[in-house]
Amino acid sequence: MYLTIKETADYLSVPEAAVKSLIQQKKIRALYDGRDYLIYKEQFNTHLKQIEKYKQLVDEILSEPIPESIDVKDED
């Protein structure tokens, strides 16, 4: 499925100018049909899956309790 620049911006939750800039920098692959750029939606799936994976990893790390240090001595 192909998206326009506006649809891509909505899908990625970024401004249209950012999408245009990424196309010009060749960080997003796009086809130019003579009037508009068309962007293949599936190219973002791997990236979005990776972001979700990193979010889960960070959540796991943050929810882990901090172990007590065996070097800490009770001063009482």
UniProtKB/TrEMBL annotation:
Stretches of the chain forming a coiled coil according to its record: none
Residue span, Helix-turn-helix domain: 2-50
Pfam families named in the record: HTH_17
Gene Ontology molecular functions: DNA binding
InterPro entries in UniProt: HTH_17 (IPR041657), SinI_DNA-bd (IPR010093)
Protein name: DNA binding domain, excisionase family protein
Organism: Neobacillus bataviensis LMG 21833
Taxonomic path: Bacteria, Bacillati, Bacillota, Bacilli, Bacillales
